[in-house]
Amino acid sequence: MSADPGRIEARLSTFDTAMVVFSLVVGIGIFRTPAIVAAAAQSTALFFGAWTIAGLVALVGALTFAEIGSRFPRAGGYYRVVAECYDPRLAFMLNWAQALLQGASTAGVALIGAEYLAPVVLPDAWQTPRAALWIASATISVLLYVNYRGIRTGARTQNLLSLLKIAMIVGLAALGLALAPPAPAAATPVTATTGAWPARLATALIPCFYAYGGYQMTMNLGADLRDAGRRFPLAITAGMALVVGLYLLLDAAYVAVLGTPALAGSQLAAAALARAVLGPAGGTVVSIAVFLSAAGFVNAGILQMPRSFHAMAADGVLPRAFLRVDPRTQVQEVALLAFGATMLVPAFTLGSFEKLLNYVMFTDALSIAVVASTIFVLRHRAVNATGFAMPGYPLLPGLYLGALLLVAASVLATDPAMAVAGVVILALGWPLFVLGRRLNRPDAAGGQSP
């Protein structure tokens, strides 16, 4: 081990980080949420309006986090920037909720990917819920081992999974737009949300924001990216621009082939699109696409979440074992195993994808708003003033914060139980922080991240 067992050396390139951004955002959301958006919007114009507005907000968010990451490139930056701009207790509350949710939701994504892969690789008699669980567990275990071999190995795996995912999305959308017959003029009517168009748009935006979320967690890799002050803005904005472009392309194919009313009734829109384009083979194509997308999301989480534990351990909230970094592989072995446990031993109690969506969006919207607001503090303190400066400051980041708070308010209005659950989870972080500080009293300064 090196003299400083907590030191992180930059090993990732701009491309590596952009692919992490891409896969942190593109999980299974784009395969499930279009139906929810169509049902809420009840019109093609509002459907595309919701995806476009949410995409523009996400790009503004990417620029906001690009500046924060450029000014404040730290390991576990999502925690560290709040701790230093505001208070470590608030930072822990936000990141405790993220860590708790991230492990369970990552396992959930892996399980959904396994459910789609099972019919492709297993005979009918073996296709049981337990078989899907074993496939998901094997996927998680393999990706944990890959990342245990080193951060460069994990990054190369991420690049491969992300490129395969991009190829599958582009290919499916292109075939849909080029080959499939147009949507029938008379389709099944939409029977979901009713009301004036502003209310329908507000409801439709929630799943759109969910599908565009995740890019902010790339801040945890701030110390891993070479020349992060210059390269982080390029990585996060390039990754998000790619996401927005591919989402709108795939949405256009959904509407062109299925029509908005039928789309609203398609639980897995991608499957219906693939069947229309490729016939019976479409199911196999979508199954592989969903599995690859899920695997990419899982691997991206494994790459970045241990760095959040690193930052919390540096603050004396977690044991110092979470600070240890192998100087050869740049892997935090204890943190990697801990995150693996949160994935392999999850308790699923929410009961539906829509419930998970509302819980995630309420908690995420509040957390992202707090972290994004640090851009004003960093500017005021002139931290790394020569770094990237987002255009449109302070108007654009102000509008971004407003959009996040509106999303949280919308979830509170439509699903107050999930909003209350999110508040309770956040609040539990306070006593856990106090307990952690009492149990771990070493000099935190020695473990500060670079």
What does it look like?
- This protein has 450 residues and is mainly α.
- It has one domain: Amino acid/polyamine transporter I (Up-down Bundle), CATH 1.20.1740.
- It contains 17 helices and no strands.
- It has helices spanning 14-25, 29-41, 44-71, 77-85, 88-121, 129-148, 151-179, 197-212, 228-258, 260-264, 269-278, 281-314, 333-344, 353-372, 374-381, 395-414, 416-439.
- Helix 5 crosses helix 13 and helix 16 packs across helix 17 (416-439).
- The model is unreliable at 186-193, 347-352 and 443-450 (pLDDT under 50).
Topology (SSEs and partners):
Elements (H helix, E strand, L loop, with lengths): L13 H12 L3 H13 L2 H28 L5 H9 L2 H34 L7 H20 L2 H29 L17 H16 L15 H31 L1 H5 L4 H10 L2 H34 L18 H12 L8 H20 L1 H8 L13 H20 L1 H24 L11
Q: What's the CATH class label?
A: Mainly Alpha
Task: Calculate the terminal CA-CA distance, rounded to whole Å.
Answer: 17 Å
The named CATH superfamily: Amino acid/polyamine transporter I
Q: How many helix segments?
A: 17
The helicity comes to over 70%
Radius of gyration: 21 Å
Share of β-strand residues: under 5%
In the predicted model, the low-confidence regions spanning at least 5 consecutive residues are 186-193, 347-352, 443-450
CATH architecture: Up-down Bundle
Number of strands: 0
Give the domain tally.
1
Reported for the largest beta sheet, the result is: none
Task: Report the structural category.
Answer: mainly alpha
CATH topology: Amino acid/polyamine transporter I
Shape: globular
Order of helices and strands: HHHHHHHHHHHHHHHHH
